[in-house]
Every structure is written in C-alpha cells, then in structure tokens.
C-alpha cells in the first residue's frame, strides 16, 4: 500500500509540475515550449493507463481506465496539450487521493501487523534472555515487561496483569487478569512486568493467526472490482457511443474529446474502493476482520443467518447450573468436596467444577492418595475421609445411596450437559449438573441482528432434539435443525439460499464446510479453530456476538455510501457529457469540472469511516461500575444455591431438620439478599435509568423487587409461626411452593439485570 501511494504521489508531482511550468512558459510568450512540457507531463499518466488497461483486458475485465486512456491519447493527437496535461493531473491526483484514503482507511489493519512481536524474554536459570519468537515453545517461562506485547498464548503465573487488548477486541479500556488466567498473544502490557508460561508456540498463537488473516485481507483482490465492473459494463459503451455520435453530428473531433474527458469514470474507479476499505477499517477497529471487499458486499445483502450452537450461541464450556443433594445438609459442601478432588484431574469437566467452586469463594483442600480412571472419575482422601467424584456408573460402583439418581440423570439428559456425582465415605451425597449455557449477550445480539436487517435466523446443532428446541426457544430463533452432521449443515444452508443471501456463524473444525458453503462465513476467531477461521469470510477477533450486528450494519451503510457516491458522481458526469456533446463544455473546462466531481465523491466515500456502532443506547457504564455490579451478583450466588438446594430436598428432610434449614435460609435472605435488592432499587436503578433514558425505564424491574420483598415477608412470617417441631403436611407443601417461587423470580430477576448491565457495557 505504501509503495502504491509513493508511486501515485510521484506521478502527481510530475504531471502537476509540468502543468504549472507549461502555464508559466505560455504566459511568458513561449507557447511552443509549453506544449512540449505539457506533453511530457501527460506521457507518464498515458503509460500508466496503457499498462492498467492492458492488464484489465488480459483478465477479461471491463477496463474502466479505457475512457481515461482515450481522453489523454485524443488530447495528444488533437494537439490539445493543455487539456491532456489537465486530464493527467486529474487522473494522478485522483489516484493519489485514493491511495491516501485507502492508506488512511486501512491503518487499523496495518497497525495490527506493525504490532506483531518479533522476540520474547525467556527466563532461563534465573536470568532473562531475549530470544527470537520462533524459539519459544510451550511451557517456556516468559517475562513480559511494561509496554511489551504478549508474545505467545500462555497462562499468567504472576498474581495479576493489566492488559490493553484493544488490538484484539477493539476495547480501549485495560482489563485485569489474575493468576492462572489464559493470556492471548497480541495484548499489550499496560501495567507492571509479569511472568507467564507459554501454552503455544508463535505459529499456533492467537495473534499469529490474526496477522495471517490481516495479511490475506490486505493482499486480496481490490475490493472495487465487483461493484465497479458492473457499472462499467454499461457506462463505458454509453460514453464511447455518445462521443462518436457527437463527432458525427458536429464533424468536430473536439466534441468527442470533450465527452471522453468528462466521461472519465473517476467516481467509479475511486469512490467504491475508498468506501469499502473505509468500511472494512471501521469493522477492524471494532474487532471484526472482513477478508475482502466482496465479503463486505455479500455481508451487506445477508438476509438468512445460520448459527452453530456450541461456542457461538452458547459459551462453549460447561458451567455449574444446579446442585442436587439428598440428606446431606449443605450443597456448598458437596461442591467443595468435588472441586477439591477435581483439582488433581485434567478433565475439562473437572476444570469447570473447580472454576465454579472458586467463583463462590470456597476454600479447597489438597487431597491425598488420588487415583483417576480416565474419563470416568477420581477417588482420594480429603481430611481423612474417602471421596469419589465422577460419572454415575463410576461412583455407584463404589458407593451406595442416591435413589434420586435416575430422575436426576433424566433431567440432565433432557436439558443437556453432564452429571457429576459425589460420594463421601461410601455414600452418594449429591450430584452436580454442568451444562454449556447460553451466552449472556446472545438474546440481545439476535435482536440487534434482526434490527440490522436479518429476516430469518436458524440454529444448527448436533445435539438431541429436546436440548436443541429448549435452547432455540430461549434465544428466539426461527428454525432449529437438530442432530445435524457437517453434511447436514451444508444441506440446510444450500436450502436456505432460496430465501436470500445466507450467512453462517461457527467456531469449530466441523463448522468449516458450512462456513465455506454459505455466501458469508463468519468464524468466532477469538478462540475458534484455525480451520473455521481460514474457511470464513469474516472473523470475529473478539468473543462477542453483538459485534457481528455492528459489522452487518457497517456493511450495509458502506454499500449504500459506495452506491450513492457512484450514482451521484456518474450522474453528474452524464449531465456534463450531454453539455459537452452539444458543444457547451470545451475539453479543458470539462477536465476541471471532472476533477471537482472526483474530489466530491471521494470525500463522500470517506463517510464510511464515521459509521457509528449499532447501539441500543448512547451511554454506558464505566468498567469499575460494571465490575462492581457483577461482583455483587457473584457474591449472592451462595444464597441462590442454598435456596435451590433446600427447595429440592425440603420434602426429604424431617420436620425438625426442615425447620432448622428454613431458618438458616431466612437469615441469609434477610441479612444479605433483601438488603442488596433494596440498595439496587434506591441507588443503582436511578443511575441505570439516567443511562437508559425515558420517563421510568426501570419500572418493571422495581415491580419485580416488590414481588421479591413480598415473598421475603411471607417466608419470614412462616418461620415465625412455624411449630417448634417443624412444618408438616400442608404447611410443608406451602413452604416448598414459596421457596420455588422465590427461587424462580430471583434467578429471572438476576438474569434480567445482567442483560441490562451487558447492554450498558
């Protein structure tokens, strides 16, 4: 890009100098010498056009430079040397302006390449040694100094790190990472030096894949070709025909030259690439890489959207959804036992169990005499007691109890996910349900996509029909295709083409065929498979679906600006051609007028750089405010877990045990949860209302608070009037219904608040 800009600038200097020098010579009384200078200034532009036209014809393309070539050649043949020089300046200035605009528009993509690390600081035998990036291998211990770029993917070993991930995500606010968190290459250390362990080499790291994608996007075919060539198919013959008619009707070849001068399709040649590259740059700034202009044009016309489920609509990793206990008094203890033992396992489900315990602030114990049966479970000693964690088949073979296991397994099968059973001293005491949960931003992202122009949304998944239908209904898709193989996904996309241009979003290796089949393939490249990123036309560098809605809106506006620029520019050129054909616009004045049109359409095309992201509101929470609100919810997870567990097992407890358990729950609600809700209503909701706008945007949420307070009061009354020996019969059933009601409304309320926070993030 830089060499093209340099060449175009040099040609502009040559032709511009020749024009000015020739004018000076003519004013001083040396017209013959001025003609030679103007001719010399025209020849480089003529040679450039000749080369480009021949190349276009060899590719069997329309050759939109043909009119400019004929205009300069005609001026030379007809001794209109000044006109030829003006056309040369017009052409070279337009090309230089185009190169500058593309360089300016593409600087976000170029900045990614410029920030690619070349070396890393490896810690060897207590000393720091700088090595080439290619020498880094997994498990190397690395030091990242302040201001350095994270060289490869790895895991943080220091207590914390402050990272600027704007080159990866488009978010300018630094983020904090804690010990054990995964780090992606390409992030900038915005804090103090930290240490990390490499988990990948340079070639397999996140930033290397992004650099390869950016390089491919920058070296791809000029994005103007598709749209420009379509217009050239009719504009070039029309211009030549009108020039010939003007010549034949008047007998004056200057009429034909004048028509060709104002017909020079600079708006066509310049406006389209400037607008499209500007749109691609705007998307890159927001963490969406569009590989070429053709992909952006197809994206602008997309009507039918297909989603793979896992990793796109859902988070792609298991999270704890519920804890089932029998007579064991504390569901949190069941989770602590499982997580303590699972610390010693490398299984992906074990990692999710440990993460759930740490999210809830549980203190884990280091087990001893641990034995693992790959893929089935783990046994070991915790504080002198024998613990087993794993599948039902594994745990039930060495422990008794768990009559509820069959119904629990049936629930897990219907809802999807994995069941992890826990046994203590030979007795099954509980089970964990872990499932891939719907992304927090998914429902909002789908609403934004519909708002941006998507008419139909379908979900493709290999899951069973029951699980797929439940998730499809939850997120609001139009069609659900369950139990699909990669070939089945391809067939569904081919069938969807009858409804319009199709778009497919996926993140796994098995999604690559579907991504290649769709008119526009979109890969979740932030953590997706390399195969899917390479097969896709669009790569989301940040793990957020709402960025796809922004990219779709940007593509539509960019396409509109490109077409608008071409239509206005060529419309003005057609009007000028008619004036020239009737002799009212001499070639010299036509060249000056065409230059003004060029500048106008390029400036209009640059509007694509200012397309604003698709937003529901114009204001946002600060990072600290968002973290504070979410940490409040995380701290209350223990209350919700306790409430759910007690509601499930209340009927299995003795009346006295039920009385003690309900009293403990009531204390948690009255001292922790209800004060939190009152604080939200008085302090947080007024702030959110200001950001959202409107008369009372939080009215419905405040109404939910009143329902929660009412249920809390009812529970407190039931606790106060409970018999000394505990609830029985009808009173026990009423109490259980109350707990289930409170559990349902609280979980829905928290989910609604989280969606509002995400909306304002």
UniProtKB/TrEMBL annotation:
<feature type="transmembrane region" description="Helical">
    <location>
        <begin position="256"/>
        <end position="277"/>
    </location>
</feature>
<dbReference type="Pfam" id="PF01814">
    <property type="entry name" value="Hemerythrin"/>
</dbReference>
<dbReference type="InterPro" id="IPR059000">
    <property type="entry name" value="ATPase_P-type_domA"/>
</dbReference>
<feature type="transmembrane region" description="Helical">
    <location>
        <begin position="9"/>
        <end position="28"/>
    </location>
</feature>
<dbReference type="InterPro" id="IPR023299">
    <property type="entry name" value="ATPase_P-typ_cyto_dom_N"/>
</dbReference>
<dbReference type="InterPro" id="IPR023298">
    <property type="entry name" value="ATPase_P-typ_TM_dom_sf"/>
</dbReference>
<dbReference type="Pfam" id="PF00122">
    <property type="entry name" value="E1-E2_ATPase"/>
</dbReference>
<feature type="transmembrane region" description="Helical">
    <location>
        <begin position="34"/>
        <end position="50"/>
    </location>
</feature>
<feature type="domain" description="P-type ATPase A">
    <location>
        <begin position="116"/>
        <end position="214"/>
    </location>
</feature>
<keyword id="KW-1278">Translocase</keyword>
<dbReference type="InterPro" id="IPR023214">
    <property type="entry name" value="HAD_sf"/>
</dbReference>
<feature type="transmembrane region" description="Helical">
    <location>
        <begin position="560"/>
        <end position="582"/>
    </location>
</feature>
<protein>
    <recommendedName>
        <fullName>P-type Zn(2+) transporter</fullName>
        <ecNumber>7.2.2.12</ecNumber>
    </recommendedName>
</protein>
<dbReference type="InterPro" id="IPR001757">
    <property type="entry name" value="P_typ_ATPase"/>
</dbReference>
<keyword id="KW-0472">Membrane</keyword>
<dbReference type="InterPro" id="IPR044492">
    <property type="entry name" value="P_typ_ATPase_HD_dom"/>
</dbReference>
<dbReference type="InterPro" id="IPR051014">
    <property type="entry name" value="Cation_Transport_ATPase_IB"/>
</dbReference>
<keyword id="KW-1133">Transmembrane helix</keyword>
<keyword id="KW-0812">Transmembrane</keyword>
<comment type="similarity">
    <text>Belongs to the cation transport ATPase (P-type) (TC 3.A.3) family. Type IB subfamily.</text>
</comment>
<feature type="transmembrane region" description="Helical">
    <location>
        <begin position="231"/>
        <end position="250"/>
    </location>
</feature>
<keyword id="KW-0547">Nucleotide-binding</keyword>
<dbReference type="Pfam" id="PF00702">
    <property type="entry name" value="Hydrolase"/>
</dbReference>
<dbReference type="InterPro" id="IPR018303">
    <property type="entry name" value="ATPase_P-typ_P_site"/>
</dbReference>
<keyword id="KW-1003">Cell membrane</keyword>
<dbReference type="InterPro" id="IPR008250">
    <property type="entry name" value="ATPase_P-typ_transduc_dom_A_sf"/>
</dbReference>
<keyword id="KW-0479">Metal-binding</keyword>
<keyword id="KW-0067">ATP-binding</keyword>
<feature type="domain" description="Hemerythrin-like">
    <location>
        <begin position="628"/>
        <end position="759"/>
    </location>
</feature>
<dbReference type="InterPro" id="IPR027256">
    <property type="entry name" value="P-typ_ATPase_IB"/>
</dbReference>
<dbReference type="InterPro" id="IPR036412">
    <property type="entry name" value="HAD-like_sf"/>
</dbReference>
<dbReference type="InterPro" id="IPR012312">
    <property type="entry name" value="Hemerythrin-like"/>
</dbReference>
């Amino acid at each position: 890009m830089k060499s093209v800009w340099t060449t175009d600038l040099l040609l502009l200097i040559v032709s511009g100098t020749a024009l000015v020098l020739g004018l000076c010579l003519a004013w001083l009384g040396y017209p013959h010498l001025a003609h030679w200078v103007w001719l010399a200034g025209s020849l480089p532009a003529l040679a450039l056009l000749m080369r480009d036209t021949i190349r276009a014809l060899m590719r069997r393309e329309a050759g939109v430079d043909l009119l400019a070539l004929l205009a300069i050649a005609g001026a030379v043949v007809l001794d209109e040397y000044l006109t030829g020089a003006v056309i040369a300046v017009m052409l070279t200035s337009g090309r230089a302006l185009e190169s500058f605009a593309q360089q300016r528009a593409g600087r976000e993509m170029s900045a990614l390449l410029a920030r690619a690390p070349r070396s890393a600081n490896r810690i060897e035998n207590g000393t720091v040694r700088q090595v080439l990036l290619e020498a880094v291998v997994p498990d190397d211990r690395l030091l990242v100094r302040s201001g350095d770029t994270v060289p490869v993917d790895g895991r943080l070993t220091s207590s914390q790190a402050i990272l600027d991930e704007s080159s990866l995500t488009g978010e300018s606010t630094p983020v904090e990472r804690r010990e054990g968190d995964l780090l992606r290459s390409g992030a900038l250390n915005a804090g103090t030096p930290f240490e990390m362990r490499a988990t990948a080499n340079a070639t397999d790291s996140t930033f290397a894949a992004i650099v390869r994608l950016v390089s491919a996007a920058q070296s791809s075919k000029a994005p103007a070709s598709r749209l420009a060539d379509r217009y050239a198919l009719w504009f070039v013959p029309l211009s030549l025909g009108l020039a010939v008619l003007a010549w034949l009707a008047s007998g004056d070849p200057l009429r034909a030259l004048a028509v060709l001068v104002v017909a020079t399709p600079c708006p066509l040649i310049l406006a389209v690439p400037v607008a499209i590259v500007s749109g691609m740059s705007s998307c890159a700034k927001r963490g969406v890489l569009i590989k070429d202009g053709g992909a952006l044009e197809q994206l602008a016309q997309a009507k039918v959207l297909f989603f793979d489920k896992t990793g796109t609509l859902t988070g792609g990793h298991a999270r704890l959804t519920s804890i089932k206990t029998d007579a064991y008094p504390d569901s949190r203890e069941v989770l602590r036992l499982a997580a303590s033992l699972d610390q010693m396992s490398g299984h992906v489900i074990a990692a999710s169990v440990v993460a759930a315990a740490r999210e809830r602030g549980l203190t884990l114990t280091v087990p001893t005499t641990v034995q693992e049966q790959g893929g089935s479970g783990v046994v070991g000693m915790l504080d002198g007691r024998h613990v087993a964690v794993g599948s039902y088949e594994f745990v039930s073979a060495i422990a008794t109890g768990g009559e509820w296991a069959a119904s629990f397994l049936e629930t897990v099968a219907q809802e999807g996910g994995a069941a992890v059973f826990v046994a203590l001293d030979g007795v099954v005491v509980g089970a964990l349900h872990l499932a891939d949960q719907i992304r927090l931003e998914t429902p909002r992202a789908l609403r934004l996509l519909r708002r941006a122009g998507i008419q139909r949304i379908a979900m493709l998944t290999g899951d069973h029909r029951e699980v797929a239908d439940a998730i499809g209904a939850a997120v609001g898709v139009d069609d659900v295709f369950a139990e699909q193989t990669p070939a089945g996904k391809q067939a569904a996309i081919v069938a969807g083409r009858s409804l319009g241009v199709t778009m497919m979003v996926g993140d796994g290796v098995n999604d690559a065929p579907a991504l290649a089949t769709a008119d526009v393939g979109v890969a979740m490249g932030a953590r997706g498979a390399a195969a899917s990123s390479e097969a896709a036309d669009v790569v989301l560098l940040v793990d957020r679906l709402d960025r796809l809605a922004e990219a779709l809106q940007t593509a539509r506006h960019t396409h509109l600006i490109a077409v608008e620029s071409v239509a206005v520019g060529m419309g003005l050129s057609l009007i000028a051609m008619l004036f020239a054909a009737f002799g009212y616009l001499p070639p010299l004045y036509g060249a000056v007028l065409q230059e003004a049109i060029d500048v106008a359409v390029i400036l209009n095309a640059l509007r694509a750089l200012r397309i604003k992201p698709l937003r529901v509101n114009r204001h946002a929470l600060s990072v600290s405010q968002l973290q504070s609100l979410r940490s409040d919810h995380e701290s209350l997870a223990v209350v919700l877990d306790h409430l759910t567990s007690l509601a499930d097992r209340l009927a299995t407890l003795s009346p006295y045990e039920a009385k003690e358990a309900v009293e403990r729950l009531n204390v948690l609600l009255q001292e922790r949860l209800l004060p939190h809700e009152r604080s939200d209503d008085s302090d947080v909701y007024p702030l959110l209302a200001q950001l959202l706008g409107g008369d009372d945007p939080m009215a419905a949420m405040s109404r939910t608070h009143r329902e929660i307070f009412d249920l809390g009061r009812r529970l407190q009354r039931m606790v106060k009037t409970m018999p000394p020996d505990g609830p029985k019969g009808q009173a026990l059933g009423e109490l259980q219904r109350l707990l289930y009601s409170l559990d349902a409304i609280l979980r829905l309320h928290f989910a609604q608040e989280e969606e509002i926070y995400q909306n304002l993030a």
